[in-house]
Amino acid sequence: MNTKSRIGLAVVAALTTSIGFSAAALAQPRPAGEWHGEWRYEDHPHGDRATTEALIRMEQRREAERRARIHDEVAWEASLDARAAEHRRELEAYWGRHLERAEVRAELSINADRMARLHRILDVAVAEGDVELAARCRIAMNREVNRHARVMARLRME
What we know:
The chain has 158 residues and is mainly alpha-helical.
């Protein structure tokens, strides 16, 4: 195993720990090969299917834009402010008055940090051709979107 793979695996291990996956979740079998699955809604008693599906659609749109534009690093960096403003407008349109609450802003910040880390891990995995790591990263992204949707649905009801 080369040094880059070890670093990638160490980053994934640290990220899964910081996300709070249980030992049982880490012990589940990992998929072989590339993950061809779709974003999916995970049923949860406190979940809100509409919220989850809306967040999944937002993430799909942002991921498609990211894949299309990330190859030109200069343009990607130059468009940072415009992308951030667009994302803020999207959040304001969807969450409205709930954004005034500190706990909602805190959850959005946690989710943004986690998704940024996962996107970076995915970028490294794709660049190195590590299909298994990319698949695991996408599964972790799906779990994070579902976790985020559950928390935001609960906060919206309060």
